[in-house]
Amino acid sequence: VVPQLGTTSLVIPEKDRQPGEHQFWNEVRWQDVIYIIMVVAYVMWEFVELGQRGVKYFQSGWNLLTVLTLSLHVCTLGSRYVYMNESYFTKGLREEQDSNLTANFSKQSRAFNNFIFFAALNVVFVWFQLVHYL
Predict the structure, then answer these.
(1) With contact defined as beta carbons under 8 Å apart, do 87 and 22 qualify?
(2) Nearest-angstrom CA–CA distance, 110 and 36
(3) How many whole angstroms separate alpha carbon 27 and alpha carbon 83?
(4) Positive or negative CA dihedral for 91, 96, 98, 102?
(5) Which of 57, 112, 125, 128 is a good FRET partner for 18, with 20 to 30 A between their CA atoms?
(6) Which carries the bigger pLDDT value, residue 69 or residue 3?
């Protein structure tokens, strides 16, 4: 934190940002927004079904698979958010900054590996769900 900046919150006001500084919402594409909306709608749909069925909802293996895939969707979204916030190494290379980027690269690579893990695992379980509906 720069000494001239007040630390009243974890958010740095726009006027205090450096030119070209990373902002999460600048990296979000319309596909990301659609995916988030779909996951939220799917979670709400399952909560409605859970409210209607009660405990009987968990007696079906397919519903347990649905809960697992919903959890993996949320983990995929969370790991993508973390990855996008840890991408200082790549942004630093693009901007050709001479700073200690190596430490940031390990965080970025770990975040990317977590994102790929959750996304791949999610694809496998969504494939099982697809088989259920065929």
Answers:
(1) yes
(2) 23
(3) 11
(4) positive
(5) 112
(6) 69
pLDDT, mean of residues 72-87: 85
For the four alpha carbons of 25, 27, 31 and 36, in that order, the dihedral sign comes to: negative
Three-class DSSP category at 18: coil
Share of the chain above pLDDT 70, in %: 66
Query: 58 Cβ partners below 8 Å, 6+ apart?
Result: 64
Residue whose token pair is 């991408």: 87
DSSP annotation string for 44-71: HHHHHHHHHHGGGGGGSHHHHHHHHHHH
Enter the tokens of residue 51.
């409210």
In the predicted model, is pLDDT for residue 95 greater than 80? Answer: no
CB 108 within 8 A of CB 101: no
Compute the distance between CA of residue 15 and CA of residue 100 in angstroms, rounded to an integer: 25
Supply the pTM of this predicted model: 0.66
